[in-house]
Amino acid sequence: MSNEALEVPPMEQPTQAETGFDFSLIDNPTHEPTENVGLLKVKRANSWIDEAKNRPAPQMLFDCLWFDGELCILFADTNTGKSILAVQIADAISKGEPMPNFRLEASQQPVIYLDFELSDKQFEARYSESFTNHYRFSDNFWRVEINPDGDLTGDGSIEDALFQSIEQTITDTGARVLIVDNLTYLRQGTEAAKDALPLMKELKALKSRHGLSILALAHTPKRNLSNPLTRNDLQGSKMLINFCDSAFAIGESFKDKRLRYIKQIKQRNCEAVFDAENIILCEITKPYNFLQFRFVDYDSERNHLRSMEDEQRERNELIEKVKEMNGQGMTQRAIADQLKISVSTVNSYLHK
What we know:
The protein is of the alpha/beta class. It is 31% helix and 19% strand. It is built from ten helices and 13 strands.
């Protein structure tokens, strides 16, 4: 075989008549396409940057965990203090006064707190001393809850009516910060992409129309406390974490039940600062009339996770408890119900 290179005949370029595309545009860099093309905005990269340069850089609302203009998700297990921290963040922004050890760059501004978790009396209990000596929030702090006597008019869904009411409240108060406690009340079922995607689109559209910064609270399903917190711990579809700008989570310290830690999960306006090697340790405390997170220290997440030895010890204790209850004449079903484990687990433990 000859070592000479084989000559490959040039491919014939299809004609515009055949494809419907004008190939001369490829060689014409001065061509300006239409800027608005259906759902798309088309500009050269330099044009986007030139326009962005005229807008101020994003400012911190809750240190580097949440910046203004972002749709941020805060997620954690039940009873770890999501609402406590979220109200504390809202209070700081509404007053323009940073929480101790957490940076706040934005000036004071109106905040809407959508509270779908607590009644007004439960809220009062958290921010008073036994229902006396009440904490005074800023007039910039607007707390909103569902009106049980609200009028649902039209043929739209409850979710649509809720979004319309939220948008009207934003307009009426002039708020630029919206905190949602929690996501499941805005749309029932966020486990599937078909449910989560419309919700995130609606929130992003709301953010764009009103120039909002949004913090949305969400749950984590039951998780293994031996594992570090990750984006996979956010309950529901990954669409939630994929479409948000930033996210952080609260974990409970296995070594000290009084402690909580805050971990950065996703960020776009900065590099990760509070990652697994630099979590923020806090304790929940109530000096006088304000339930709050108090900064303790920075630490590594691994120091607050359950070890394999801890896990085995708990399992052995549970096995002994199952055998003790069985010896007292309890049925396997009764044991399972009381210890909140499956009947098959009870049966397995009795045979160890």
